[in-house]
Amino acid sequence: MATPNVASNLVAVCQLTCTTDKEKNLADAKALIARGAQLGAKMVFLPEATDFFATGCDVNSELMESMDGPTLLAYKEIAKEYGVWLSACFHIKSDDPSEPKRSYNCHCIISDRGEVVSGYDKVHLFDVTVDSTAIQESSWTIPGRKITPPVACPVGKVGQCICYDLRFPELALSLAKQGSDIITYPSAFTHSTGAAHWEPLLRARAIETQCYVIAAGQSNPPGQKKELYGHSMVVDPWGQIIASCHEGLDICIANIDLEYLQGIRARMPVWSHRRDDVYQPVLEDSGPDLDLKPFSSPPFDGLGLGLGLQVQ
């Protein structure tokens, strides 16, 4: 793979192939974090379900942990060991005794001192029908109730989202309005929805917010049935893919150029052109009740395109 150009504001994006084996998931992530640190990354981004990947209440209730559980503690130690900031997602047990089986899908930002400096609970839950299969994330996940303000990190101000949040531009626009330089979408996109929508959605969020978009995803190992899309990537504020991962376990490196970002915003000042006076009455309307048929993806194996810097 290519060696990254000399740059001062590097991020690493890790693509995992997580299962219910938390020890292996942790070992895989640690190896990629170590590689990112070796390559000079200040911050390393990991996908949704960093701790384990599973669906269903029973498995979730067996594996979820509290904020002071051993898995999150291990990632805090890794951040200190390698001197990097981390973006990672965990299934966090609720303190509410009425929620014994569901957890929060929590996106944590961990400093290089091993401290959790911010947490965001996923607000949009993936309750959909894909390829005639009903997925009810709300059956094992408690929805979040608020947007977390952007976090000042060594590579810029980071706005936190998770996976299905990608389909709701209002969240990204809110984070950009609050000063985000980077909006991150740790994800576990299904293969069929990813093949159709992953890349265009990420590029759209970058273009409309004029932010860098970082999306670390879950993938299947090469040769296995393609259920998860992967294609982890970094998109710049002009909508260009500047780094991307291959299938399976992988890592890519990108430079976050904040001067370039500010230049785009100065030359195309969309924020000063926004007409909230026109949009707001429409946004406040709950909209019509729609009778929609379940989504079924077309029978094709679409691939997201775009070249990026590959590292292994």
Structure description:
The chain is an alpha/beta fold. The chain is 28% helix and 23% strand. It has helices at 22-38, 57-63, 70-82, 169-177, 191-209, 258-267, 270-273, 276-284, and strands at 10-15, 43-45, 85-93, 103-110, 116-121, 127-130, 133-136, 141-142, 151-153, 156-160, 182-184, 212-215, 233-235, 241-244, 250-255, 310-311. Strands 1, 2, 3, 4, 5, 8, 15 and 16 form an 8-stranded mixed beta sheet that branches. Helix 1 packs parallel to helix 3. The relative contact order is 0.16.
Number of helices: 8
**How far is the N terminus from the C terminus?**
7 Å
How much helicity do the residues have? Answer: 25-40%
Could you say which structural class the secondary elements and strand pairing correspond to?
alpha/beta
**Average residue-wise pLDDT:** 90
Helix/strand order? EHEHHEEEEEEEEHEHEEEEHHHE
Summarize this, please?
With 312 residues, the protein is an alpha/beta fold. 28% of the residues lie in helices and 23% in strands. Strands 1, 2, 3, 4, 5, 8, 15 and 16 form an eight-stranded mixed sheet that branches.
What labels would you give this structure?
single chain, about 300 residues, alpha/beta, 8-stranded mixed beta sheet, 8 helices, about 30% helix, about 25% strand, globular, disordered C terminus
Helices and strands, with pairings:
Layout: E1 10-15, H1 22-38, E2 43-45, H2 57-63, H3 70-82, E3 85-93, E4 103-110, E5 116-121, E6 127-130, E7 133-136, E8 141-142, E9 151-153, E10 156-160, H4 169-177, E11 182-184, H5 191-209, E12 212-215, E13 233-235, E14 241-244, E15 250-255, H6 258-267, H7 270-273, H8 276-284, E16 310-311
Parallel strand pairs: 1-2, 2-3, 4-8, 10-11, 11-12
Antiparallel strand pairs: 1-15, 3-4, 4-5, 6-7, 9-10, 12-13, 13-14, 15-16
